[in-house]
Design a protein that fits this description.
mainly beta; Neuraminidase; four-stranded antiparallel sheet; elongated; WD40; signal; 6-blade_b-propeller_TolB-like; TAT_signal; PD40 domain-containing protein
Length: 631
C-alpha cells in the first residue's frame, strides 16, 4: 500500500463535519470519493481531576479528538494520542500538564498510539503499525526523533500467520525495562466457542529492554487475557487485569453487563507470585499502582461504573475511560467518549490514498447506474432505506422500517430493520431485507422486499417462513435477485425470480452477504468454512465456477464490488491494534479495508486505523455529474 498524507482540510472543517453539496464533490485532482463506515466514538476528550473526582477540568487548552493521556514521571507533561490530523489518523502529541504547549512527537500515516515517556523523559515507548501494518512496540529518542523497533523484528516475533501484535507499553521506574501485553503465538479464535466471526483475544505479559535485548515472558494463563500491565513505583511488581479469553468479546459489548467478570492481579517479579486484589463479577480493567500498596482501576459498564481503589478509597462513579494516575498520587487523567452526535454523512476522513477523498457514510451503500446512492440509515436508530445523490442532495427516505411489526427497541439497537438495499438494473426498484438480524436470526425471521425509488409499491417477495436477507440484483436482469437464507434445515445462497417468485438453490452452507459484480459475471459472498474460518469467495450465477479469494486464517468478510469490478472487504489479517477489552460498542474493532482484483491478486490495504472500518464504496467523480442530471 502506498501511504499518503491527509488531504489538508482545516481543523475547523474536520470538527464541523461538513456535509451536503459544499463537500459533496471530490476535491480537485481526485478521482472521486471513497465512502466508508467507521465504528468509533465521535467524541473523545481528555480530563484531569483529583482522586476524589473534584477539580475536574478539560486537560487541553486546544482540544480536538484525543485519548490515552499519560502523565510523565516528573508531572510536567502529558503524552496523548490525537486525531487532529484527520478522523482515523492516530498520532502522538504531548502538552504541559496545564494543557498548553501542545507539540507533535510522532506524526505518520501509520497508526501511532499508547505513548508513554521514560522516567527521565528522554525516550518515548509507543505502539505503531509502521513497517508492516501490525501493532508493535517502538521506542523514539525524544531529542533526535530516532526510532527503534522492539517487537516484530527478526529476533522478536511470533509464529508467522498467527496473531502477533503488541500493546500497552509501560516503563519500569529505573527506565531499564518496558512491559507490555501481546497475543503472540495464540490462535485466531471466534467468540462463542470459536463460532463467531469476531475474534476473542488471549494475551500474555512480556518484558524487553529499550534497546531490544532480553525479551522474555513474565506471565501467562492459557485461556485467559492478561492486559494493561504497569510497574509498581518500587519496580518490584507488575499489576494487570485478568479475564477469560471469551470475556474479551463481551467486554466490548454493553449488553453483556454482568457476564464478563475480570479481576485485578499483580505479580512479584522476583518470585513470580500472583496476588488477586479484587473479587466479584464486575468488569475491571486498566489498573495502576497509585502507591506501592494501592491500585486504582476502572469498572467498565453497569450501574457501578467508575474509578475504584484496592485500598477501599471511595470510588468516583461515572463513565470515564483509560485512567492514568500522576506519579505524585494526587490526580488522575482520563477520557470521556461518546458515539453521539453521530458522524455525519460526508464527514472528511483521513485518506490513505491520495487519489481519493475519504468520507463517512452509513451502512450498506450501493450506487446505481444513474449515480444515486442507496443505503441503510442505521446510525439514526431506525434502519430505514434512504436514497440521495453522492453530494448529499435529494435525500429521501423511501422505506421506513417502522410500521411493519418490528420491535422498535431492537431496531434502535441495530438488531432489526431494513438491511442491505440494492438497486435494480433499470433503477426503478430497490430490493432489501426486512426483519431481524445477527443473533436475532436464531429465533426471529426476515424476508426479501422491494420498493419503487419514489417510495411506492412496497411488496414482500419471499414468504417469511425462512430467514431471508442481504439481497443483490443481477445488473443485467432487474427481476433476478440473489440472497441468503438461514434456518435449521437450509442455509446458503438462493436465486429469486421476482416475476414468478421461483427460488433456486445456488449454494448450500454458511454463506452470506452476496453481491453481484457490476458486469454480472460473478457473485461475491462470505463463507464460513468447516474450520470456522471466514473467507471471501466468488461464484458464477450458474453455480459452476467457485473461487476462493482470501485464504488467511483470520476472518475476512462483508465483501462488496467496486465500480470497476474489483473486490473490497473488511479483514483482520494484520491483527488487533489494541487490547480488545478496551473498545466500546464494536464488533471486530480492528477490521481494516482491503481491495484486490477480482481474482484476489494485487491486494492492498486502504485503511490503517485502530477502529473498525467497513462497507466501502468508490464513487468516481463522473458519477457526481451523472447523479446531478437526474431529478
Amino acid at each position: 500500500m502506498d501511504r499518503r498524507n491527509f488531504m489538508g482540510l482545516s481543523l475547523a472543517t474536520l470538527a464541523a463535519g461538513v456535509s451536503g453539496s459544499a463537500m459533496g464533490q471530490a476535491a480537485a485532482g481526485k478521482k472521486g470519493v471513497f465512502f466508508m463506515n467507521r465504528i468509533a466514538p465521535s467524541i473523545a476528550n481528555l480530563y484531569i481531576a483529583n482522586l476524589d473526582g473534584t477539580g475536574e477540568r478539560k486537560l487541553l487548552a486546544d482540544a480536538a479528538y484525543e485519548y490515552n493521556g499519560t502523565p510523565s514521571a516528573d508531572g510536567q507533561w502529558v503524552v496523548f494520542t490525537s486525531e487532529r490530523n484527520g478522523d482515523g489518523q492516530s498520532d502522538i502529541f504531548r502538552a504541559r500538564i496545564d494543557g498548553t504547549g501542545i507539540e507533535p512527537l510522532v506524526v505518520d500515516s501509520a497508526m501511532d498510539d499508547a505513548g508513554v515517556l521514560s522516567p527521565d523523559g528522554t525516550k518515548l515507548a509507543f505502539v505503531s503499525t509502521r513497517n508492516g501494518y501490525r501493532a508493535n512496540i517502538w521506542v523514539m529518542d525524544v531529542a533526535s526523533r530516532a526510532l527503534t523497533q522492539l517487537t516484530g523484528t527478526p529476533g522478536v516475533h511470533g509464529e508467522i500467520g498467527l496473531p502477533d501484535c503488541y500493546f500497552r507499553p509501560h516503563w519500569s521506574p529505573d527506565g531499564q525495562w518496558i512491559v507490555f501485553s501481546t497475543d503472540r503465538n495464540t490462535r485466531w479464535y471466534g467468540h462463542d466457542g470459536g463460532q463467531g466471526w469476531e475474534h476473542t483475544q488471549e494475551l500474555a505479559l512480556y518484558m524487553i529492554r529499550p534497546d531490544g535485548r532480553d525479551f522474555h515472558k513474565i506471565a501467562q494463563k492459557p485461556g485467559y487475557c492478561l492486559g494493561s500491565p504497569k510497574f509498581s513505583p518500587d519496580g518490584k511488581r507488575v499489576c494487570f487485569h485478568e479475564m477469560t479469553t471469551e470475556a474479551t468479546w463481551g467486554a466490548r459489548r454493553p449488553n453483556y453487563i454482568g457476564k464478563t467478570p475480570s479481576q485485578i492481579v499483580s505479580i512479584e517479579l522476583e518470585t513470580g507470585e500472583w496476588t488477586y486484589h479484587t473479587t466479584g463479577n464486575e468488569l475491571k480493567i486498566q489498573p495502576q499502582f497509585v502507591t506501592n500498596d494501592e491500585i486504582g482501576y476502572l469498572v467498565k459498564y453497569g450501574p457501578n461504573e467508575g474509578l475504584y481503589y484496592t485500598s477501599g478509597r471511595k470510588p468516583v462513579l461515572g463513565k470515564v475511560r483509560s485512567p492514568n494516575w500522576t506519579a505524585d498520587g494526587k490526580s488522575v487523567i482520563y477520557e470521556k467518549t461518546s458515539f453521539f452526535p453521530i458522524r455525519p454523512f460526508n464527514k472528511p476522513l483521513y485518506s490513505w490514498d491520495n487519489d481519493w477523498s475519504y468520507r463517512h457514510l452509513d451502512v450498506f451503500p450501493q450506487i446505481g447506474r444513474d449515480g444515486w446512492l442507496v443505503y441503510t440509515e442505521k446510525q439514526l436508530g431506525d434502519s430505514s432505506i434512504v436514497i440521495m445523490r453522492p453530494d448529499g442532495t435529494g435525500k429521501t427516505t423511501v422505506f421506513q422500517s417502522g410500521g411493519h411489526g418490528l420491535d422498535l427497541a431492537r431496531v434502535k439497537m441495530g438488531l432489526a430493520g431494513a438491511f442491505q438495499p440494492a438497486w435494480s438494473a433499470d433503477g426503478k426498484w430497490i430490493v432489501f431485507g426486512l426483519g431481524y438480524w445477527f443473533i436475532e436470526r436464531a429465533h426471529e425471521t426476515a424476508a426479501i422486499w422491494r420498493v419503487k425509488r419514489d417510495g411506492t409499491g412496497a411488496e414482500q417477495l419471499t414468504d417469511g417462513t425462512m430467514h431471508s436477507g442481504f439481497p443483490s440484483v443481477d445488473p443485467n436482469n432487474p427481476d433476478r435477485i440473489v440472497f441468503r437464507v438461514w434456518s435449521e434445515k437450509e442455509k446458503g445462497l438462493r436465486l429469486l425470480d421476482a416475476k414468478t417468485r421461483k427460488i433456486t438453490v445456488l449454494t448450500e452452507g454458511l454463506d452470506n452477504l452476496p453481491g453481484w459484480s457490476p458486469d454480472g459475471k460473478e457473485i461475491v459472498f462470505t463463507r464460513k468454512r468447516t474450520d470456522n474460518n471466514f473467507d471471501v469467495y466468488t461464484i458464477t450465477p450458474d453455480g459452476k465456477t467457485l473461487r476462493r479469494i482470501t485464504t488467511h486464517d483470520s476472518s475476512d468478510g462483508h465483501a462488496v464490488w467496486s465500480w470497476d469490478n474489483r473486490i473490497m472487504w473488511s479483514g483482520s489479517e494484520h491483527g488487533f491494534r489494541d487490547e480488545a477489552a478496551l473498545y466500546e460498542m464494536t464488533f471486530q474493532q480492528y477490521g481494516q479495508i482491503y481491495v484486490a482484483d477480482r481474482d484476489g491478486s494485487n491486494k492492498r490495504m486502504v485503511t490503517d486505523t485502530k477502529w473498525e472500518d467497513s462497507m466501502p464504496i468508490y464513487v468516481p467523480d463522473k458519477m457526481f455529474q451523472t447523479a446531478a442530471k437526474r431529478k
